[in-house]
Each structure stands twice: as structure tokens, then as C-alpha cells.
Amino acid sequence: MINLGTCGGVEGRIGRFAVAAVERAVIYDIAEAMGDSKEAIDEYSTTLALPAELPAPAVKVTMYSADRDLTPARLREMEAAYQPVVADWESGAIAWVAHRNGAPLLILRGVTDLVSLHSGEAQGNLELFQTNTRRVMSDLVRDLPRWLAAWR
User: Fold this and answer.
1) Burial readout 23-41 (b: 16 or more C-beta within 10 A, e: otherwise)
2) Residue 134 belongs to what H/E stretch?
3) What confidence tens digit (pLDDT) does each residue in 35-92 have?
4) Cβ of 98: how many Cβ atoms within 10 Å?
5) How far is it, in rounded angstroms, from Cα 49 to Cα 127?
């Protein structure tokens, strides 16, 4: 399986329009009511295989995934535990399902916007996200043949 998409990045840790090659996906918002939340988060975290040499400019990352956008408030909540570089909505779930079914998976995400502890440039700015998404997705699709050749 191949999953291309977008993500938010943490300002000062990754650049806007950088490609995030996911080597680990963590679903960080699991709140276990009958057990240990950290244990559940560990259980649903997934390691992915990347080519030894990346075929296009990219940063190997741990993707933090949840059913919420990365905002300054969310970043403050997760900073002490994770010091994230990037975050998105779906990589964690996709990685876990692929792993559970024995399907090889490549996840590449382009950083559309940056968030700091104090501001989020796309928060309330859908046009910025949409404009940057066009560029990010174009770059990912352009480089996909190189990734496929290296990933096999």
C-alpha cells in the first residue's frame, strides 16, 4: 500500500513543503478508560520499512496521528511526552491496519503548514492549506516513481 497526503509540521523542527517519510506512526490520543493509556498507545504504534537510501529529498519521521488538527494548544498538550516533528489525522490508523494485515506500506506526507507553541499558520486559514496542498501533492506524485523503484 502507498499513502500520500499532507501533514502539519512543528516550526523549527521541519520546513514547510518538506516531505515526511514515515518510519513510525503513533496514535497519540488513545484514552484508555479500563487500562493503561500509554500501554494502549504503544500497542497501536507501528514501525514501517523505508528504503535504505531515500530516493528523493525527505525527512524520516515518527508521525503522530489523532482525530484532530495540530494546533498550538494540542502541541502544548503533547510536547512534554513526544516533542513531535509532524502530525496528521490518518497515518496511525492506516499503518496499524496495514501492519495487522501484513501489507507493506509506504506513507509519504508533505508539510502544508507549521505550528508553534504560540501560533498555527493554517488555523482559520483554509486558503493557505488548500494552496499549499496543491503544491505538496504535486511534488509527491512527481516523485512517486522514484519512491516505488527504491521501495521494492
Assistant:
1) bbbbbbbbeeeeeeeeeeb
2) helix 126-151
3) 665 665 566 778 999 998 999 999 999 998 887 888 898 899 889 888 999 999 999 9
4) 19
5) 34
Cβ–Cβ under 8 Å, residues 97 and 91: no
Q: Which domains does the chain show, CATH number per domain?
A: 2-151 (3.40.50.1580)
Three-point CA angle 104, 105, 106, nearest 5°: 135
CB 16 within 8 A of CB 115: no
Tell me if residue 108 falls in helix, strand or coil.
strand
Question: Side chain identity at 62, as an amino acid letter?
Answer: T
pTM, two decimal places: 0.90
Question: What would the grid cell of residue 42 be?
Answer: 504503544
Distance CA 106, CA 26 (A): 15
120: DSSP letter: B
- Kindly report, residue by residue over 2-12, the tens digit of the pLDDT: 999 999 999 99
Q: What is the pLDDT of residue 66?
A: 86
